[in-house]
């Protein structure tokens, strides 16, 4: 019987087999790829932190006048959280 028969195509592959194939395909990721990806995420995290805080400082008076539920602290926390997440992704990319 041909390898691509209806019975073969009808049957689903087990998830563990698919994950093993995927891991084997991407196991040997080159060091320059890891460094580039890591630097991009870490750089984006640092940029978003400083850029976000400078924009908040520039808009501080408008934010305080608006009497928004989201004050300065919650916005600063949001920016810091996004920046830390991006830096964490960069460190994870460097390791994995």
Automatic annotation (TrEMBL):
<protein>
    <recommendedName>
        <fullName>Distal membrane-arm assembly complex protein 1-like domain-containing protein</fullName>
    </recommendedName>
</protein>
<feature type="domain" description="Distal membrane-arm assembly complex protein 1-like">
    <location>
        <begin position="29"/>
        <end position="66"/>
    </location>
</feature>
<dbReference type="Pfam" id="PF15055">
    <property type="entry name" value="DMAC1_Dmo2"/>
</dbReference>
<dbReference type="InterPro" id="IPR028036">
    <property type="entry name" value="DMAC1-like_dom"/>
</dbReference>
<keyword id="KW-0472">Membrane</keyword>
<keyword id="KW-0812">Transmembrane</keyword>
<feature type="transmembrane region" description="Helical">
    <location>
        <begin position="77"/>
        <end position="94"/>
    </location>
</feature>
<dbReference type="InterPro" id="IPR053092">
    <property type="entry name" value="Mitochondrial_unc_protein"/>
</dbReference>
<feature type="transmembrane region" description="Helical">
    <location>
        <begin position="35"/>
        <end position="56"/>
    </location>
</feature>
<keyword id="KW-1133">Transmembrane helix</keyword>
């Amino acid at each position: 019987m041909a390898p691509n028969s209806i019975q073969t195509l009808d049957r689903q592959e087990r998830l563990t087999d698919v994950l093993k194939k995927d891991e084997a395909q991407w196991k040997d990721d080159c060091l320059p790829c890891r460094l580039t990806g890591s630097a991009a995420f870490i750089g984006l995290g640092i940029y978003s932190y400083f850029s976000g805080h400078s924009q908040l400082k520039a808009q501080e008076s408008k934010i305080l006048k608006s009497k928004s539920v989201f004050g300065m602290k919650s916005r600063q926390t949001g920016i810091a959280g996004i920046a830390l997440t991006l830096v964490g992704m960069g460190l994870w990319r460097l390791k994995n």
